[in-house]
Amino acid sequence: xxxxxxxxxxxxxxxxxxxxxxxxxxxxxxxxxxxxxxxxxxxxxxxxxxxxxxxxxxxxxxxxxxxxxxxxxxxxxxxxxxxxxxxxxxxxxxxxxxxxxxxxxxxxxxxxxxxxxxxxxxxxxxxxxxxxxxxxxxxxxxxxxxxxxxxxxxxxxxxxxxxxxxxxxxxxxxxxxxxxxxxxxxxxxxxxxxxxxxxxxxxxxxxxxxxxxxxxxxxxxxxxxxxxxxxxxxxxxxxxxxxxxxxxxxxxxxxxxxxxxxxxxxxxxxxxxxxxxxxxxxxxxxx
Length: 287
Description:
This protein is an all-alpha fold. The protein is built from 12 helices and no strands. It has one domain.
């Protein structure tokens, strides 16, 4: 929603200022300039991106436009889930977690938390972190390094769409100049048609330069930055999981492991300590 509000502000400010200065918005509508600039920008996007990155760019843009970010509610659900899982492991032994971790879709614990079940990456990260603990194939001190390596790989992968969009944004002013030069070439070819025709074509050429800069700094680069913030939020979610799981594997009590994870969160999404503790203590014992 905020992205759409920002886009309206950008458009309204630009066109409003142009109208106040006595401009006619119809003189900005040169289809040829739109075709050149947006078409070349799309070509740059395709040339620079492998197929899987193109799909990820589309996905990230949809998420950004949808405005669905993990907030305090989602982090509270995560901490409640982890607490329940840890309590089962503490009371019944780590082997009791196997039925929940190996097939979370049939788990009486995981299925209570749709915000986790509906996010494949987060669900897999929890299960992948717990599996080595259950199997006993790795020492607790080594688990954190293992999860850090996975986090780093995921963070690098998530930044690919940002880099591509920034490339397109940085290229758009230059693409606008290309469109302007093409317009000037047309102007020179029509110079014998009189001042009125020449003026119209020069205006079209200048619109190309305007459009390239406007789309770059008004939309593409800000969108890339919003995706970067969303990536940071996703990474924080996974880091919260890592802190809790690694702490539990090292022998921390379930409540302590969850508290360590809670303190790793930004203040805008961090549940209150006393409220969370009361919520966890009031939960029915997991089985």
